[in-house]
Design a protein that fits this description.
The chain is α/β, with parallel strands linked by helices. 35% of the residues lie in helices and 24% in strands. A hairpin with a 2-residue loop joins β2 and β3. The relative contact order is 0.18.
Length: 136
């Protein structure tokens, strides 16, 4: 295999991995009303969870942590463990390692409106995708 072929092959793998990662994903956004992002993530936060397939929202649901005494769960992110991304205004530093252990992409935003934060995030994803696919 020539050096140029090896470079093209490795670039194709990067694009393939990107497409696999972003073709199906779930995004969690902390909210109380489904419209606005709460100021800071708390262990009892509710989340709007958006399910995307090929960049299109195919499902959305509200999830709320059921904090019962002696529930045995020490993971405040148990209800979003199936999500790939969390978009939030602020996450306490002590909770960041829990998200990193779950391999979540943490997206910090200054936006208050969920649709604005979501569109901003998706714009950055598509920009990354176009850079991967189109740069020589």
């Amino acid at each position: 295999m020539s050096r140029n072929t090896a470079i093209i092959w490795s670039e194709a793998q990067v694009v393939s991995n990107f497409v696999l990662k972003y073709s199906h994903m779930k995004i969690a956004i902390p909210t109380n009303d489904g419209l606005t992002i709460i100021t800071q993530v708390n262990p009892d936060s509710s989340y709007l969870v958006l399910t995307l397939e090929l960049g299109e929202i195919v499902n959305q649901e509200m999830r709320k942590m059921d904090l019962k005494p002696n529930s045995g769960s020490e993971n405040p992110f148990e209800i979003i463990e199936d999500c790939n991304v969390i978009i939030a205004k602020a996450i306490p530093e002590k909770l960041v390692p829990l998200l990193e252990e779950q391999e979540k992409t943490i997206v910090r935003t200054k936006e208050t409106i969920i649709t604005s934060a979501f569109m901003q995030y998706m714009g950055s994803v598509y920009k990354m995708e176009s850079n991967l696919c189109c740069c020589p």
